[in-house]
TrEMBL record:
InterPro entries assigned to the protein according to its UniProt record, in alphabetical order: 5peptide_repeat, ARM-type_fold, Arm_rpt_dom, NACHT_NTPase, P-loop_NTPase, Sigma_54_int_dom_ATP-bd_1, WD40/YVTN_repeat-like_dom_sf, WD40_repeat_CS
SMART domains: WD40
Keywords from the UniProt entry: Repeat, WD repeat
Highest rank taxon of the organism: Eukaryota
Taxonomy of the source species: Eukaryota, Fungi, Fungi incertae sedis, Mucoromycota, Mortierellomycotina
Pfam (any one): NACHT
Name listed for the protein in its UniProt record: NACHT domain-containing protein
Keyword set includes Ribosomal protein: no
Species assigned in the record: Modicella reniformis
Length: 1313
């Protein structure tokens, strides 16, 4: 019994190195004895580590003593030995990182090296390099296989234990079966594949409490699913459906079998037995052996829980497989090997389930005889698998199975392999190894040629000298007569590897009493080879497997000189070498699936090749075929192509057609990979864009790494404006940079949403070095021509078979006013073809029909909802859902649908800022605003299914962006609600005439009387302005599509016009209405409403867009017009006195007239002030918000030729014909310095990038450098023969460039360098 107070952990600073080493050994000795108290043992190890550290720092870090070198070496060896022993203790106690450190210290001090220090260094370097290389560099040659321990195995606790390098399998790893993590679906959500379903069922089957799970995603999912019995049943029924589909599948290829194998461990018992029956029947009834189903049967049995396997079933399966095995003489050795493997798994399962009733006469004895005969095979795999199956068969008849006898020593009752998998973390490995020892001792006998290799050197040497080859060694090494421990040990290794318990695997292999048995070593090497070749294991693990093979091959003293094992390792390494190129993840298979899916997605879409022009400024007749231009771009060295176009112009349609065309011509050898990306559906596309899209289409992480390293892409990025981006996606994703993705980018954006400097967001390179001409181009999609419209109509009628014929549509196109202009937009053309047959009465005069954009959307949405209602009415529903459907229908299904659409559009703008894609997770979003639209409530589901929405996984969006904008506009003003609120009957205007509230002459003026009338009508109808309107809480000034819908409503609905005028009027007295007022006046101006002479005094409309509006003689005194756009606005005789106009945009800035010539001007860096220099010598500074003259100076006596602001905008430098440079304070206008020295006119001045220096160029041919703070001249640079007109300073202030009228430019180093 040890007490913690016995040992002190304080540093012993006064101890000599030898005393400190002695104390270390005391700590280690007591730590070994503290087996029952791991915490105390770890504390003792920590004390030992501290003492060793002191010895190493004090005694071994100094130079060797030349007069006592043997003393230094002896101490070094002792410290090395203690370090190694410390590492073993730490490793045993589970402190693997500390153990690694101790092992490294021991190796540094020469532990067990014996003149091989160079080899150890080389081995260490090899490890380091391999970790940084890709899979193809994992495999070393035999000459590189490491052997760092050349001693015999050490005896620890009475056992013969092999020692291998400490860095091999140091820690446990995540097993490959769980390496791929699939997203967990929402309730009723779509599952993408069978592994995803298997994961869900596995989590449910594990009966885990959500509180015990660390992964927050899994925990949240389980918390939802454990209370949702419907969803649990749905998942189980999906598994049942997969089995039924497999039964109907006549082909039953490898892929189908593999899916069933993945699903088997998580099936309900009845489904599992049904699956076994399907495999059994398939093998039994096939004339030619169905190798795929045989492999599937073997894997299903191997992964099964014992409780799912009946003894009778196993006996029947064994009889079938044994029968097929004995009748497969003329088939390939691969078939025999697979049959033998299946026999092994069946026998394993029979041993686990205590099957003892095997008929010796009919089954056991014939099978034993056949397996024994297979050792004559020339196929090494068959021979080894036959021996393994024979060992399994010997376990079946016993009352106590070999496997159970082994595990009995652990003190736990564990049922079979499946039981071990679940309990492997708690397995008493020492007890397990002891059990193997008991079996080993009981099985030793003279008849076992290689039973216990007591003298490995002699045994194999004699075999080698006698000329026996590989197969002879193997056949003599495999026992077909007794139960052997190696069989049970290998089953233990399989369970540990399956669970990723690699540290325990290492311990079992090194300490198993049968570790020198060739069959055991064969099995271990085979498993190490499987780890090394499996790309799902990480690189470090695979490297460890190869190094472990090297240890067994090279270290004869530890593992024995087994010729068969050495040959087998060479065989494995050759296999690894030949397959090293195939270790890469299969990306081509996944690409083929993606290609097939994307080609099928196109369907029968109507497509007309669009025309485009090169830029927005290009004339409308400068057109070219867009597809040809894009193909030219893809064949060029350019990197980014921007596609611009109006809303509905066909950008997305073209992008999908481009992807379709590229996939059709794609081939592995010649093509880049086309990748269509809907930018709004990607979270933060400015980072890791390609990887995020590949994950969405189910590529694994290893496949993504492979694609990034070796493949090129064509990115087709759709909806830049919809994703509300401001980033340059090409630059933020580091495309075509070293170590990053290799890709060209085609990216689309709506024309309405770009600014003046839009190219900065798309061109490669930073703003100062963008490659405008070499890497970037753009194209603007043109509206359809009449010929294209007609071609589209013909295709549409052929594909969709509408009520009208081609001739009907063409007639409407000719006769309906304004329709011809509308349908030049492809999306509006589609809407028109959809709704015209119901919107237009064939008997009426088409020339009298008025069709507007908003009317088309009204009709389209109504028809969509009516079709949705019909579809749902024909669908089978639960009683509760049917009741909800009838209730919605009674109230008006279309009206309810429109209400749902409006509220959803408003919520998207309010909650997501207009981002069109909604991600809904039931577990995360229950109780949030999203649940009001996407919950499982019957009414919500019905309306959602009927509305024009599309769904991809857990993402929802409108089928077209413009429908979201239409929904928002209709929420602002719905004509149906307006009709309900309006009192029927005529209204008497101030002139006494009768007019309908639905008629409004948009060309008429809007004066004070009209506003008064609006107020009177609102008071009479008790309709105050709606404070909940979207116009109140969000500005839509920069949403042109929304504004277009609303401006058309104004032209049709006078009530809406009156509401907007009320918003403007309210803003005069209450600033909370100013957003609404800015929206309202913007809408009215775009609708053509004129405000000539209107009383708009004090209105607050900051940020409004009054461009092209008519405001002649309007009273705008004291109005808040900050940042208002006034481009091409009519303001003749408008009164703007005391109006706030900071930031107002006129398109063309106000004219500043002056009595004299203006020679130079400049903006301040912050844009707040503007300065001009005159011929008269005067300088004036203006405030740009109101263009008032701040100050004017007359200090220069001659013309001011050049003027410049300092970088911070506080100072201004001016150069004059009076031969001076003057420095001014911008705020006060005072002259701080007069810089004299030039002998002629000063033609140019400029500040350095940091503002510390001023450069001036003169007609005297010199360039002077001045100190800005003091005004002192620092340098005079000569070289030009005539006047210097331009000076530029480099950003780093290291160089200055100057240009002169002497036809030269000069580059000079600054500061006299």
């Amino acid at each position: 019994m040890f007490h913690r107070t016995t040992f002190s952990s304080s540093p012993h600073t006064t101890l000599s190195p030898q005393k400190a080493l002695d104390l270390t050994n005391v700590y280690l000795e007591n730590a070994r004895k503290a087996n029952e108290d791991p915490e105390l043992a770890l504390e003792l190890c920590a004390n030992a580590e501290a003492s060793l550290s002191r010895v190493m720092k004090t005694a071994l870090s100094r130079p060797p003593r030349s007069h006592h070198p043997q003393v230094d070496q002896a101490l070094r060896e002792k410290v090395a030995s203690s370090s190694f022993e410390l590492g073993q203790l730490q490793d045993h106690l589970g402190s693997t990182k500390k153990a690694q450190s101790s092992y490294r210290n021991a190796e540094k001090l020469g532990w067990h090296v014996q003149n091989q220090s160079q080899q150890i260094a080389q081995h260490s370097d090899t490890n380091s390099n391999n970790k940084n290389n890709n899979n193809s560099n994992l495999l070393p040659t035999i000459g590189q296989l490491p052997s760092t321990h050349d001693t015999t195995a050490t005896a620890t606790q009475g056992r013969d234990i092999a020692t291998i390098p400490p860095h091999i399998f140091v820690e446990n790893k995540r097993p490959p079966t769980t390496a791929i993590v699939f997203n967990l679906p929402e309730p009723d959500g779509r599952l993408n594949n069978t592994p995803q379903l298997a994961r869900c069922l596995g989590l449910l089957q594990a009966s885990l409490s959500p509180d015990d799970i660390q992964d927050s995603t899994i925990r949240s999912w389980l918390q939802v699913i454990e209370h949702d019995t419907d969803e649990q049943e749905r998942l189980k029924s999906l598994a049942t459906d997969i089995i039924k589909e497999f039964k109907r599948d006549e082909l039953k290829d490898t892929k189908a079998v593999a899916e069933l194998v993945i699903l088997a461990p998580v099936l309900e018992r009845d489904d599992f037995r049904h699956l076994l029956t399907l495999f059994f029947t398939g093998i039994d009834q096939s004339d030619i052996l169905d190798i795929h189903q045989l492999e599937g049967l073997a894997q299903v049995i191997q992964s099964a829980f014992p409780s799912d396997l009946d003894a009778d079933d196993l006996v029947k399966i064994l009889e079938l497989v044994s029968s097929r095995l004995k009748n497969t003489h003329h088939q390939s050795s691969h078939h025999i090997h697979q049959l033998t493997l299946t026999v092994s798994h069946v026998l394993d399962a029979m041993a686990d389930t205590n099957v003892t009733g095997v008929d010796r006469e009919k089954l056991h004895a014939p099978l034993s005889l056949y397996l024994d005969g297979l050792k004559k095979s020339s196929d090494s795999y068959v021979v080894y698998q036959a021996a393994y199956a024979y060992q399994a068969l010997m376990c079946v008849p016993d009352n106590e199975t070999l496997w159970q006898a082994t595990l009995r020593h652990t003190g736990k009752v564990i049922q079979g392999v499946s039981g071990l998998v679940s309990a492997v973390k708690d397995l008493d490995l020492n007890g397990f190894i002891e059990g193997l020892g008991n079996i080993q001792r009981g099985s030793a006998g003279v008849s076992d040629v290689f039973g216990l290799v007591k003298d490995a050197y002699k045994g194999v040497s004699s075999l080698t000298k006698s000329g026996q080859d590989f197969m002879d060694c193997l056949k003599e090494g495999l026992s077909f007569e007794r139960k052997r421990a190696w069989y049970s040990a290998l089953r233990g290794t399989d369970a540990l590897i399956r669970e990723g318990q690699l540290a325990k695997f290492r311990k079992l292999v090194c300490e198993a009493p049968c570790r020198r048995d060739p069959p055991f070593q064969w099995g271990v090497c085979q498993r190490l080879g499987e780890i090394a070749v499996n790309p799902m294991w990480d690189t470090e693990t695979r490297q460890s497997a190869i190094e472990f093979l090297g240890e067994i091959y090279r270290n004869d003293a530890v593992w024995g000189q087994q010729a068969s094992v050495k040959q087998w390792i060479l065989h494995i390494l050759m296999k690894l070498a030949s397959s090293s190129g195939s270790n890469k993840p299969d990306v081509e298979g996944s690409l083929r699936q993606l290609r097939k899916r994307r080609l099928n997605d196109r369907g029968n879409a109507v497509y007309i090749p669009p025309q485009a022009k090169p830029t927005l400024q290009a004339p409308d007749d400068a057109l070219f075929p867009l597809m040809d231009k894009v193909k030219d771009f893809l064949a060029s060295e350019q990197k980014v192509m921007l596609l611009l176009g109006d809303s509905g112009s066909g950008k997305s349609t073209f992008n999908r057609e481009l992807e379709f065309d590229l996939w059709k011509s794609y081939s592995k050898k010649t093509g880049c990979i086309p990748l269509y990306i809907s930018l709004p559906a990607i979270d933060r596309p400015e980072r890791d864009l390609i990887a995020k899209q590949l994950r969405k289409v189910e590529f694994s992480e290893s496949q993504i790494r492979e694609l990034k390293a070796h493949r090129q892409f064509i990115l087709i990025c759709d909806g830049y404006d919809e994703s509300q981006q401001t980033h340059n996606l090409y630059m933020s994703n580091h495309l075509n940079q070293q170590g990053e993705w290799s890709a060209k980018m085609v990216i689309s954006c709506r024309t309405e949403y770009i600014g003046v400097d839009y190219r900065d967001r798309f061109r490669p390179g930073d703003r100062n070095h963008q490659q405008e001409n070499t890497a970037f181009q753009e194209a603007v999609i043109a509206p359809f021509s009449i010929d294209q419209v007609q071609d589209y109509i013909k295709q549409y009628v052929f594909v969709h078979r509408p009520l009208w014929l081609v001739e009907d549509y063409l007639q409407a196109l000719d006769l309906i006013p304004s329709l011809k202009d509308l349908v030049r937009n492809p999306f509006l053309l589609t809407l028109s073809l959809e709704v015209l047959p119901r919107m237009v009465d064939p008997g009426q005069h088409l020339s009298a029909t008025q069709v507007t954009r908003v009317a088309l959307y009204d009709q389209f949405v109504e028809q969509w909802l009516e079709r949705g209602k019909k579809r749902l009415g024909e669908k089978e529903m639960s009683h509760q859902a049917r009741s909800a459907f009838e209730s919605l229908s009674d109230e008006g299904f279309a009206l309810n649908g429109i209400d749902y659409l409006k509220k959803l559009a408003v919520a998207i703008y309010k909650e997501q800022g207009g981002h069109p894609v909604i991600e809904y997770s039931r577990s995360k979003d229950e109780g949030t605003w999203k649940a009001a639209f996407f919950s499982r409530e019957d009414e919500k589901q019905l309306l959602r299914d009927a509305c024009p929405l599309t769904r991809s996984s857990n993402q929802y969006r409108f089928i077209h962006r413009s429908l979201l904008e239409y929904g928002l506009a209709r929420a602002v003003f719905d004509p149906q609600e307006g009709k309900k609120r309006t009192t029927p009957g005529p209204n008497m205007t101030r002139r006494g005439s009768t007019s309908s509230v639905w008629s409004f002459e948009v060309e008429g003026g809007m004066g004070e009387a009209d506003i008064a009338t609006t107020e009177q009508q609102q008071q009479q109808q008790h309709q105050p302005s709606d404070s909940s309107s979207p116009l109140v809480w969000r500005s839509f000034v920069n949403e042109p599509s929304v504004l277009q819908f609303l401006s058309e409503r104004v032209q049709q609905e006078s009530l809406f016009k009156q509401q907007l005028l009320a918003f403007i009027d309210h803003s005069k007295s209450d600033k909370q209405w100013r957003i609404a007022a800015a929206n309202a006046i913007t809408i009215l101006a775009k609708a053509g409403v004129q405000f000539n002479g209107a009383d708009l005094q004090g209105i607050q409309i900051p940020g409004a867009d009054l461009s092209q509006g008519v405001f002649d003689s309007a009273q705008l005194q004291g109005a808040d017009l900050r940042k208002v756009k006034l481009r091409n606005t009519w303001l003749r005789q408008a009164n703007l006195s005391k109006a706030q106009m900071r930031g107002a945009q006129f398109g063309e800035l106000p004219l500043l007239s002056d009595s004299g010539k203006v020679l130079c001007c400049a903006y301040a860096p912050n844009g707040m002030t503007f300065i001009i220099g005159r011929f008269s010598g005067r300088i004036s500074v203006y405030t740009t918000s109101d263009w008032k003259d701040n100050w004017t100076s007359r200090n220069h006596i001659l013309a001011v030729r050049s003027i410049a602001y300092s970088p911070n905008g506080d100072l201004v430098a001016s150069g004059s014909n009076d031969k001076t440079v003057r420095l001014w304070d911008v705020e006060t206008g005072t002259c701080q310095h007069t810089l004299s020295g030039h002998s002629d006119h000063v033609l140019s001045v400029v500040f350095s990038s940091e503002g510390h220096l001023i450069f001036s160029g003169s007609s005297d041919g010199t360039l002077r450098i001045w100190e800005a703070e003091t005004g002192d001249c620092q340098h005079i640079l000569s070289g030009h023969t005539k006047g210097i007109t331009v000076i530029i300073s480099s950003p780093q202030e290291s160089q200055t460039a100057s240009a002169s009228v002497d036809n030269t430019s000069s580059l000079a180093a600054m500061m006299g360098q």
